[in-house]
Amino acid sequence: MGIERLKDKFLIDRLINEAAKDKESASYLFYGDKRVNLLFYALEFSKLFLCEEIENDYCGECPVCKSVDSFTYPDIEILNRNNTGIKVEEVRDIIYRAAESPYKSKKKVYILNGLEKLRKESSNALLKTIEEPPKNLYFILLSTSLNIIPTIKSRVMKFYVKPLDSETLEVEKSVYDFFDGNIKDIELWKNNSESINYEKIQLTEIFRNIEIYYIFKELSDLLLRVENEKIFSEKKEFMNKPDFKLLKDDLKEILLLYPDNENLFDVEKFKNNETFGSEIENIKKYSENVYLNIKINYIASINNLGKNYKYYKNSEKIETISKMFEIFSNNKKDIKDFFDKLILIKKDKIKNLNKIIEIKNSIDNNVNIRALISNFFMFYE
What we know:
The protein has helices at 9-20, 38-50, 63-69, 88-97, 120-131, 150-153, 166-169, 173-178, 183-192, 203-229, 235-239, 242-257, 267-271, 276-308, 314-328, 332-345, 353-361, 369-380; strands at 26-31, 76-79, 108-112, 137-143, 157-160. The protein is of the alpha/beta class. Strands 2-3-4-1-5 form a 5-stranded parallel sheet, with helices on both faces. The longest helix is centred in the C-terminal third of the chain and has 33 residues, at 276-308.
């Protein structure tokens, strides 16, 4: 599948036409709201002029396309990939290295994510390079807003990326909402979800899939925090932090269910606090490899729970409430997310929707979590 996967004909035509011009250098701005994975679109555009297998498209199968998709292509550099902020030193480093020649292709691509968060000092430092990029260099800027400094906005070609709806992407609204309309995630879901038998998921499996999903969320947040704070450079200091124990415990839990990719890093050395810093990137790759399975199993389980709870025996309902309390007793943020997902599944069929929403919103108050969960499910039937 090539550029047509974007399903927005107007945008596709513009991207193809621009790539076909084969400019010596250029600066672009992709912008859209928070539901749009702008980095995904920037990489799709990059493949149009980096892939040499198909004219006015990309093949998706060659080494170039595959390495772009896996964030390993040497001539693409992504600044602020996780959209946590950009330091002026990082901008100056890119400006310094912008004159370097590409390693493999005719073009080198710098993708700068989160332009809307860029401070004035960093924006001004970047301005000259964007206005006159060095030969064979493409700058792709990403922003969730056009509220950026006018001098940058006036010097780039702009592409508006609109979010696609569930009908266009051919998925149920609950799946669309779960993935926040992310095309790449939804495609992966569609390609892998057909083998799931929603009706035959055992209750214990439902509980486990829900629990492991929220463990994975915590692991992902921890990895992001480790990366942002660069705390793995201070190995001994980090070993004594609560975050490290959490990260290790979460990783062990996920490895029990998804051991197939554990050869990406030395698990035993990690458990024994050795080579921690050098393994962080490999641990991140491992988490990316198991990410889709965890999400697919979670969606299947929460759909099954939402649609079938009212048919449960009383003993099963009591077991469900007890298990949810066990999972969420110390995590108000995740229980709110869990309730939101359940509401989405049967929003139009809940008789006491206002009461359910009232119960969900009371999480922010000092309430008894077990009673809260019990009340939620009582009105959810």
